[in-house]
Amino acid sequence: MTGRVPPLVIAPSRPGGGERVPAGSLVASPSAKEVARAWEDFASGEDIETGVRPEILASWYRCRDQYEVDRTLDVAPGARGDDAQRVDNSVIFTGLGGLGALAGQEVAQDGAVVTVADGKGRVLGAWGDPSAQRRAELHNLAPWSSWSEACTGTNGMGTSLEVSGPVTVTGPEHWCQAFHQWACAGISIRDVVTGAPVASINISRWNASLPKLVPPWLTKAVSCVEQEIYRRAIYEADKVVAEFTRRSAQNGGALMAMDRGGNVIAATDAAVTMLGLAGETPIVAGATEPAERWSPDIPGLPDVVRWAKARAEGNTEWSGYARLPVCPGEEPVPLTMRSVVDANHVVGMLCSFGVQDGEAYEQEDEESVGPLPRCIIGMRDDRLVLLSPSEIRYAEADRNIVWLVTERGRIQAATRGLDNVERSLAPYGIRRVHRRYLVNLRRVAEVERGIKGELFLIMDSRNHELVPVSRRHAPDLRRMLGI
């Protein structure tokens, strides 16, 4: 790995002259007392919007309403034994381990502990001040414990796995009351292909805050690890393109190559025509750069890719198929998925259109989906905004950030990724009409036809607020609106 890690010194936030840290210092300040009061109200079942930083309050909502974490928990549970880390991530964890050990040496005199966890929140290593480590072990902040939000509530490691960028959790911002004497800061390292967290590194300190220099240090420190992930994504794409080139030369037909996240790397002319994209959406043959890849607008395809990837692990000869609506307005056609494997791991998929071969895909029961959220959570400036679904006119994606357009203005969704927002809003009649837009069908004011027959939805007739409808989604939209 390359890149120079900057020095880490957190001693300035400790009392000087050998003075002992006063007991309860993390919960005694006016701001901490305000957060503690908000925590008590929220933990008792009230819905609140102010008094707590938006990212922390969004985490509390996940812990209370989605994960149902016991706020009286005082010891992190042990990690499941079958959550073994992927072998192809070993270089990343080796680099993070070296980074954690280096940082642990630098903060050993500052009462801090540095921990590294995998993408599911399982702690893999801990370094730092021996007395702080012993205190941390009382809460099982040690290797082979689970510190994901779903297991242990709001904390530096677990919350960093839920959001991008560095996260600080101080005192009563922790969901579990037993951890209110700790301050921590963490950052996740994410797969550039799938966007999923691969690992996190966290710095924790008992009964003393962390200085503002820690989050920038975390950002700089993990950049060398992110470079390795980027290099691996390019390497995997080269493997996928090579297999795509070989298969397309042998068989021809409509063939599409995708990375592990279901993004298109290459496609034959026949596949482009079948998708109805000729002259509309450019597909770059051999798009090894992750930013150049394209997400196909085929309803249900992301779920099929995830299913195929899971089924193909450990079986290089596996193939499976699903029937999906590839062409707008036409009946579903079979798509056969075959894995591209390197070092016994799936690095991509080849998708053959009109071919039915291998194991049949069975869609999961809708009943298996988790409980519906009590409200939709958005963020604006330094406030968390609680929205009822009826307030949302439409949602617009800007890369991985989703904007909710409401009577209260444009509000950023707390959940990242349009697919994730779509899953949470679909039960309320908010549906996909374009690869970048969701609309609340109950809020459509008018439907406008373009010169070439394309459709636009007018969501607010006062401002002539237009949302485009892609050709692929137009037939379903007409059926749902009865037009």
Q: Which CATH class of the largest domain applies here?
A: Alpha Beta
Shape: globular
- Please bin the fraction of helical residues: 25-40%
Kindly name the structural category: alpha+beta
Keywords: DNA-binding
Protein name: LytTr DNA-binding domain-containing protein
GO molecular function, one term: DNA binding
Organism: Pseudonocardia sediminis
Could you explain the architecture of this structure?
With 483 residues, the chain is an alpha+beta fold. The chain has three domains: 11-221, 2-Layer Sandwich (Beta-Lactamase); 231-360, Beta-Lactamase (2-Layer Sandwich), CATH 3.30.450; 376-481, OB fold (Dihydrolipoamide Acetyltransferase, E2P) (Beta Barrel), CATH 2.40.50. It is 28% helix and 26% strand. The protein contains 13 helices and 21 strands. The chain has helices at residues 25-28, 30-43, 54-66, 90-106, 130-137, 149-152, 156-160, 214-221, 223-251, 269-274, 301-312, 418-425, 474-481, and strands spanning 112-118, 123-128, 167-170, 182-190, 197-206, 255-259, 264-267, 319-324, 333-342, 345-353, 359-360, 376-380, 383-387, 392-398, 401-406, 409-413, 430-434, 437-440, 446-449, 455-460, 465-469. The strands form four sheets. The protein has a seven-stranded antiparallel β-sheet, sandwiched between helices. Helix 4 (90-106) packs antiparallel against helix 9. The model is unreliable at 12-23 and 365-372 (pLDDT under 50).
